[in-house]
């Protein structure tokens, strides 16, 4: 298959491109962070430019498109909601329209943050109630994509893993801080069900190959607090878990509102794929193994520093 992956320098996009490139012809769209790799074809494009999406599809002529590009910083979205809407809502709408016209299968990446997190245990049938600018723009994108291309896959996710910069995921935050012996806070009142990005990418490919469509929750069936997640990282890497202090998100300096209980059910995905996604503990074990294998250093080596 020919696969176009947008946001290919981001945490999800880069790992998805590397995963897909093992068996497929991959085109990875980047903007501000050029890559130096022969594992897939790098296409530089600013998705906000008029006609950029159409040109990207024309150049890559994909069978499948995995749309990972987004303004994923909750704080940045609060600072510039207009830009967040352009990137997170308008670009996916245009992409969905163009994929439907051209016949490419589309998997659009959304987020667990579309829920307010007041009760947890959410299924695909539960009504979202986004709290932040980021969450609102992502939910509006779900509606726009579904309207423009009903056969598209909309995948709500939460993830961790190794990134190009080494500073993009919560797991990297804990690793960087604890390896340096720095005390950190971990929210004991914010719960989530993250998947290792490498496992998430593999599931995306299975979903596309299986011909799935519509809305899916793609998470670990195992959920825990962000404090517990940090402690698990510390223990696996042999760091001191005592460096992590349990804290409440209400006492933090974060501006964007956070949903406290983002526990989501994956019954539909498990049924339709015939297998359950990996547990968080399994993902942390693989996260550690990738570190041992030099995977973070390999990723940083892909950064093309323009002189």
Give the overall form: globular
Distance between the termini: 35 Å
Provide the low-confidence segments as ranges: none
Instruction: Record the strand order, biggest sheet.
Output: 3-2-1-4-5-6-11
* Percentage of residues in DSSP E strands: 15-25%
CATH superfamily of the domain at 2-166 and 193-221 and 263-279, by name, is NAD(P)-binding Rossmann-like Domain
Radius of gyration: 18 Å
CATH topology of the domain at 2-166 and 193-221 and 263-279: Rossmann fold
Considering DSSP H and I runs of 4 or more, what fraction of the residues is helical? 40-55%
- From the helix content, strand content and strand pairing, which structural class follows? alpha/beta
The succession of helices and strands, N to C, reads EHEEHEHHEHEEHEEEHEEHEHHH
Identify the CATH class of the domain at 2-166 and 193-221 and 263-279: Alpha Beta
| CATH architecture label of the domain at 2-166 and 193-221 and 263-279 | 3-Layer(aba) Sandwich
